Amino acid sequence: MPFVQDFIVIPTGTGQGGFSRSARVGDSSPGFPEVNTNVTINDIRTDQFSVLHFEVRGLTVANENPRIEVNGNFVGRISRYAMGSKGSDGESRFWMHQSLVIAGNRFRRGNNTITIRPAGWADSNSNDRFDDFDIRNMVLFYKTNIGATQLT
Q1: Model's pTM, two decimal places?
Q2: Residue 110 forms beta bridges with which residues?
Q3: Which sign, positive or negative, has the C-alpha torsion 84, 89, 91, 96?
């Protein structure tokens, strides 16, 4: 059966617009150090790969790459970029584009949860355990059967 590519914008922020706002991951994240976002995908082909694209900034002194999970399963890591000190200017202010190729069977038709875990850093302490960073503009590109979506 023929298939086409589709995409869905995944909300990361709260309030009007949702996806256009960034979400903070780390110590200053509201509520929890990780970010959980829910997305419903009814027409995904789980036998095909998907691509998760997003923008990230502020991940400058982490000593590990933050984990991304889909429905509780590890699917990849966000790549950190080196800086001199936490909170310094330069790359910490710029949004960096990153993408992950994810096996389609990590998603299911219906509700899915994407979790972004925080990243520790070498000089952490009880008040500042993570290298806080922001993530925004998450988009999932996936394949679907041509008859599964309405073509207008």
Answers
A1: 0.81
A2: 41
A3: positive
Instruction: Report how far residue 111's alpha carbon sits from residue 8's, in angstroms, rounded to the nearest whole number.
Output: 13
Per-residue pLDDT tens digits for 73-83: 999 999 987 65
Provide φ and ψ at 99, rounded to 5°.
-140, 150
Per-residue pLDDT of 125-135, as tens digits, reads 777 788 888 88
Q: List, in order, residues 6 or more apart from 99 with CB less than 8 Å away.
A: 51, 52, 53, 54
Provide the token pair at 120.
């520790």
Token code pair at residue 124: 């952490």
Q: Which residues of 23-38 are buried (b: 16+ CB within 10 A; e: fewer)?
A: bbbbeebeeebbbebe
Inter-CA distances, 52 with 36, 74, 90, 106, 116, Å: 15, 13, 26, 12, 12
